[in-house]
């Protein structure tokens, strides 16, 4: 799953993945709601995963 995140357009350096049995938990920060949903989608597509806990926060960076 971590490889799939790296191959995606998501900045995966700020995402932590932990797996316990068939449950994966995503923590850390992403830069948009789309990235949060994409990370969850990748987790669900991982073979053997039956539950995804998406605790990612969306950290918007604004230039003023």
Account of the protein in words:
The chain is α/β, with parallel strands linked by helices and 64 residues long. It contains two helices and four strands. Strands 1, 2, 3 and 4 form a four-stranded mixed beta sheet that branches.
Q: Key features?
A:
alpha/beta, 4-stranded mixed β-sheet, 30% helix, 64 residues, 2 helices, single chain
What does the largest sheet look like? 4 strands, mixed
Oligomer kind: single chain
Rg calculated over all Cα atoms: 12 Å
Kindly estimate the percentage of residues that lie in beta strands according to DSSP: 25-35%
Task: Summarize, please.
This protein is 30% helix and 31% strand. With 64 residues, the protein is of the alpha/beta class.
Chart the SSEs and their pairings.
Blueprint lengths: L1 H6 L7 E6 L2 E8 L2 H13 L5 E4 L2 E2 L6
Parallel strand pairs: 2-3, 2-4
Antiparallel strand pairs: 1-2
């Amino acid at each position: 799953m971590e490889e799939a995140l790296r191959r995606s357009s998501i900045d995966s350096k700020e995402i932590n993945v932990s797996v316990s049995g068939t449950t994966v938990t995503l923590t850390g920060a992403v830069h948009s709601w789309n990235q949060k949903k994409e990370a969850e989608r990748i987790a669900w597509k991982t073979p053997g995963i039956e539950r995804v806990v998406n605790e990612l926060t969306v950290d918007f960076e604004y230039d003023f």
